[in-house]
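Hi R.,

Here's the chain you asked about this morning:
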Amino acid sequence: MPDLPQNPQQYAHIFVEGRRTVGDYTSPKSGSRAFRFPDRNVQQHAALLRQSLESIGAELEQVAAQHIAGGITENLGIVLEVESDPGFPLKVDSLEKRKSGIELLNVRVETIMAQGAEQEVTKATVFVPYGKLDRLTKLVEDYRTQQTAKQHPKNQPLVASIANIRRAALGAFWTENEPLPGAASSVWWEAWLRAGTHPGERDGIERQFLAHVASLGLQIFPKSLRLAENTIHLVQATQAQLAESLDLLNCLTELRNPQQAADFFMGLNPQGQADWVSDLVNRITPPPHDSPAVCLLDSGVNRQHPLLVLALAANDAHTYNPTWGTADETVRPHGTEMAGLALYGELTPTLAASGTVQLRHRLESVKIYRESDAHAPQLYGSVTRDGVSAPEIAASGRKRVFSLQVTSRNTANKGKPTSWSTTIDELCASMNEEVPDRRLIFISAGNVGLTQHADYPNRNNQSSLHDPAQAWNAISVGAHTEKDTIHETALAGRQIVAPRGGLGPQSSTSLVWDDQWPIKPDFVMEGGNMFVEPSSGSVDFADSLQLLTTNANFQSRLLATTGDTSAATVQAARYAAIMMSEYPALWPETLRALLVHSCEWTPEMLGHQDKWLVRQTGGWSNVLRRFGYGTPNIARALRTLRNSVTLICQGDLQPFILDGSHVKTKEWAVHKLPWPRSVLAGQLNLQTELRVTLSYFVEPNPGPPASNNKYRYASCGLRFDVRRPTEDENGFQARINKQMRDEDGSNFVSGSDSNEWLLGSQLRARGSLHTDVWHGTAAQLAEKNHIAVYPVNGWWRLRKHLGKANNKVRYALVVTISTPPNTVDIYTPIVNEIATTIDTTAD
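And the predicted structure, written out as tokens:
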């Protein structure tokens, strides 16, 4: 499938067994960064840049003279590519001088080999109008001759950050991650044109572009798209045809792969949609009989849809109320649209592709909601429990994940548990069941009902997740969006609501919750975007900003668009089913850990700050309460690399024990992980990263209604701690476990290393899923191969009369160590150490 890893250098994660010691346990009872630039010889560097600008200026004069002689006076100028030194940023925000007509067109970050290691180089493409090149020359000259009040060269951050200036070639406009299309291939390009810096320039630039396209005999798509700062055309050409026309390049800001958005398919007539769907059906390999399933707890599914019938059998469609039937409604359908996303993800790239689609999971459906026959709120927990049991009885041996998109209009009250959310937690932990069979349940965060653009994002920040998304054990999914382009001609000029990479327009948050409750949503996934009506400020949906999926009324039209937190949730459940197919031995707790472990925040989520700067400014709580741990990466969740290795541990421990009339702590576990110490120890300056995620399910107990005590709700809590580089193994264990200390307490050093972690021990401790990131040198990482998992309080201990004091809890520990790409191979020494241990044990 398009979103699955294809790199042959990716390996299965490493399961670590037999390296865990369980023993008795007794609990012992931080400005912004300056812009970096290379240390320059001011005179020499200025002379070098001045020479480049003079050469460019001479070329510009020659080209401009030819154009003026030919009667061309519009859009005269030159496009430059400005480049940083490897490992240093470029002061791109200072390159644009709009009053002078100098436009920053695009910025690209490329990875190159420099000094034996991969380093990033920033490249910016800039349009300089005829007669304005001297503006850049003056910046360089002032850098050479003038100083600031602090005796620094004037314009130093900008000029010193520039390594090279040259005339831009075709590659300077290509902003996709993949390489340029083959030189001889005639392909469709998405040409993004400049709008200019002054009124009226846009039309002139577009006329010039179209004239050059016509003179080259290129094919162009008849419709264009106008955005605030770009006009977009689709043009078919080879690399050489585009590169030979410098005048055509002068019109561009970017070249991209043309993206077939949902509106393309929605714009087709029914027969057109049928042709595309028929092509896809012929490319699909149905899922194996024993494949896992995504079970949709929704409004039913019309399973005869040609894209769904391959993976949803008649006996896998269930209903809570036999009088409802199993089918989805066609007036206000929901489940069928979710089914398409749960099986394929967004359909647009899958329909537009040409290869085989191997389905690795199937679908199940339970109709638990009918618009015309809604349940009373107090019955929602019961309805969900019955809905979960139906497929488990019908196909008892099948692995599955559940996806619940039906939530209450009543939001979770500051994160407090309800009967519905408690039922969800019970189902996940298989509480009080004769045969424990833990479950992974995904729940949509709920939508805020945004109607006015002015209310975004304040309405989202003030709107709590919907009940039962506050459930501790479930994965609650919010929405973000990468969709920032409106394709519909009728909507040209409309503004989008959410910025690219930002919070979905309808996604709720947990900013209003009390701090003691879990981090929710756990993460966010694509939920589409909305646009703004300029006259009223109201918001609405456009097909190009939504996700393409299967239509409930498929006899009329096969495809539909949808979005928001429901769409985000089923896509997350799809990821989990794919992971379950790849790793059948993973527990639900482990699947949850791996998904969160793979998450990253977009620059927009972090306010375009470095994540460690967010830590310094104390902004992490707000980030987590809006976006959870970011958005998951299915490739990272499935595979390990030579420079980024994921270790998986699954185990259990007994947190408490009833000793006479008292309940006290019982066990902890210390993991001694296979570690590439010899490779890391000698790398004194190599920067590395360690990520640890601990996941377990609590047994819920809301306790007295007036109680806000988190320990009363959760059966127990677990925490992790990692050995510090300055500790030996004994000192590490003594710091965490009072029973490991010498009589005089001299074998450990107290204190906290919370400042060395991205989130810190307090913030990461909320809920029943804990993840954090440590950053340091390889030499420091070499000594961090011991991780302890230990218990903290819970109602198993506090409410001994309930008879759970001697229970055990399962947990999953996921650890990833990473070095920069193409620096050191840490995968091979880890595998070798495991093999050596096995051989030694066998002897």
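Confidence is low (pLDDT under 50) at residues 838-843.

Let me know if you need anything else.
M.
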